[in-house]
Write a structure and sequence with these properties.
The structure holds 2 protein chains of 2 kinds. Chain A is α/β, with parallel strands linked by helices. Helices cover about 30% and strands about 20% of the residues of chain A. Chain A is built from 8 helices and 9 strands. In chain A, the strands form 2 sheets. Chain A has a 6-stranded mixed beta sheet with strand order 5-6-7-3-8-9, sandwiched between helices. In chain A, strands 2-1-4 form a 3-stranded antiparallel beta sheet, covered by helices on one side. By secondary structure, chain B is mainly α. Helices cover about 80% and strands about 0% of the residues of chain B. Chain B contains 10 helices and no strands. The chains are: A alpha/beta, B mainly alpha. Chain A: It comes from Candidatus Accumulibacter affinis.
Chain lengths: ~270, ~280
């Protein structure tokens, strides 16, 4: 199969001795919205970094409009989990970062800021923005170069649930308006199903595709649409290998009756 | 999504209240010195301390007026400030160049940093005899000593600033295809600017210190010479006037840097960011 925007085939990607991605292959057509969902460590973010040209040490073949990925590609934009605004630049200068300081008066900056609802904040500094506002600036910056494919790496995971829903709708309308294709990585199954035409589910160790769910609900979508809930269930099934994975710890808890004891820092594991 | 503080009528009223608070705070800071000056004057006039050893503030004002009147004070201030300015500019300039090279490249760091760390461990005054031997007693050893004093704080802070630049912001630069010189100018320098200013301000105050050291040893003009002159002629008033003038010059030059810092670094999300 051939896709007109992105064709990705990563045969292997290793971090030292550890194989993190094995035989992942998918494509994206122009105008699609596709999500990558999977547990931590399944290589979702690594795949985005490969497409963005930030990571070049892999075996495989990746083509964006028949070209291998490279940094500063006009075809690809990237939005991170955090806004990553440059604190010493104003909002307008951040959006027009590609043009340098002279870009802040570019009429396209004004238009994009108005689209993300921050028309009055062109001269504000990032420290004056809330988390959601900063992420909207990041979206405007991602769109400024007018990429055909916008990559988003867990873009809304750092904001509260209400802000997240508003940002999701904002992303859909702005991307729709500019005809931008979206590929986003998320932990949030609900978000993936609501936003996407297709959800690609990855399994971990090593990262590989465990399946794909097509979401054919019409847009604009109603978050209460039961069809979406059904698709969510399908994604969850793929994530959990078809079983109900309730992590039952009651057995362990029963074996060790609660009692006061000092917490040993070395015994704690932190997972991100 | 909460709103940012947009100046409204309420905000303006609040800011004028803050201004009055700032004024009170500023005058509060003068209370202790004023009380000390009055006590000082009283102690000397009352005869508890010899006015020969501790001239009262009123006598210092007379001495200051005399020195200012015949133009010698201005000459001393001028020559000392010029020495500090030249030494500081050379030292800070070199530190920025070397600091950038060391901060940005591990190889340069491995090559140069141990040497600078070793040189830094030398007490500054240990340089004086060597500089006098090598450079005579003219301007050159004085300016060199000030240069050494200004160099290290700027160098250390700038290197630390560059090495601490957020990797995530560097990555943003990378995505926009910035490499080499452009990456340095657009990401590393602005990100390291707060540290650079810390270094510059420390370097400037050390420059004044080294100026006095240099002028105490061999000078016929300058505020350090005024100190020596006062000691040799037994005039404590001259010494005290020179000290006061040095304090004022140090404060004024630091305030200038601070003003520049506030202008250039208004973007910092700092705890003490004052309403402008």
């Amino acid at each position: 199969m051939s896709h007109n925007l992105l064709d990705l085939m990563v045969a292997a990607k290793d971090f030292e001795a550890l194989r993190v991605i094995k035989n992942v292959r998918f494509g994206i057509d122009s105008g699609e919205i596709v999500s990558l969902v999977g547990p931590s460590g399944c290589g979702k973010s690594t795949l985005l970094r490969i497409i963005a040209g930030l990571d070049t040490s892999y075996r495989g073949d990746v083509r964006i409009k028949d070209e291998p990925p490279h940094l500063h590609s006009r075809d690809v934009g990237l939005i991170f989990q955090e806004p990553r605004l440059l604190p010493w630049l104003t909002v307008a200068e951040n959006v027009a970062f590609e043009l340098g300081r002279k870009g802040r008066h570019d009429p396209y900056v004004t238009q994009l800021l108005a689209e993300v609802g921050l028309g009055d904040f062109a001269t504000a500094y990032p420290k004056q923005l809330s988390g959601g506002m900063a992420q909207r600036v990041a979206i405007a910056r991602g769109l400024f170069t007018q990429p055909s494919l916008l990559l988003l790496d867990e873009p809304f995971s750092a904001v509260d649930a209400f802000t997240r829903r508003r940002l999701q709708d904002l992303l859909l309308s702005v991307a729709g308006h500019h005809g931008t294709t979206l590929l986003l990585v998320t932990h949030d199954v609900n978000e993936a199903v609501y936003l996407s035409d297709r959800v690609i589910v990855l399994a971990d160790r090593p990262g590989r595709i465990s399946g794909q769910v097509i979401v054919d609900a019409r847009r604009p979508r109603d978050r209460r649409n039961p069809q979406l809930a059904k698709r969510e269930a399908e994604v969850l099934t793929l994530l959990n290998d078809g079983t109900n994975q309730f992590f039952d710890l009651s057995y362990h808890l029963a074996a060790a009756p609660p009692r006061w004891q000092a917490i040993r820092l070395s015994s704690l594991n932190f997972a991100i | 999504m909460s709103e940012v503080s947009v100046p409204a009528s309420g905000a303006i009223a609040a800011s004028s209240r803050l201004d009055r608070g700032g004024l009170i705070r500023r005058t509060e800071g003068l209370l202790v010195p004023a009380a000390l000056v009055i006590a000082w004057e009283a102690v000397v006039r009352g005869g508890w301390v010899s006015s020969h050893l501790l001239p009262p503030p009123s006598e210092l004002v007379t001495t200051l007026a005399d020195l200012a009147g015949n133009g010698t004070l201005l000459e001393h201030i001028g020559i000392s400030s010029l020495r500090v300015l030249i030494g500081f500019l050379i030292g800070a300039g070199l530190a920025v160049v070397v600091g950038a090279a060391v901060g940005l490249s591990r190889r340069t760091e491995a090559l140069l940093d141990p040497t600078f760390q070793a040189l830094r461990a030398i007490p500054s005054l240990a340089w004086v005899p060597l500089l006098l031997l090598w450079l005579g007693i003219d301007e050159a050893p004085k300016i060199t000593l000030i240069t050494i004093g200004a160099f290290f704080p700027v160098y250390l802070n700038f290197v630390a600033g560059i090495q601490k630049v957020d990797r995530k912001l560097v990555e943003v630069g990378g995505i926009y295809g910035l490499t080499g010189y452009r990456l340095i100018a657009r990401i590393f320098l602005p990100a390291a600017l707060p540290n650079l200013f810390t270094g510059l301000r420390t370097g400037l105050s050390l420059s004044w210190m080294f100026l006095v050291a240099a002028e105490l040893i061999a000078a016929s003009r300058g505020l350090g010479y005024l100190l020596t002159d006062g000691r040799e002629t037994g005039r404590a008033d001259l010494v005290l006037v020179a000290i006061v003038v040095l304090a004022l010059l140090g404060k004024i030059s630091d305030s200038l840097l601070r003003w520049l810092e506030d202008r250039l670094l208004g973007w910092r999300d700092a705890f003490d960011s004052r309403p402008s």
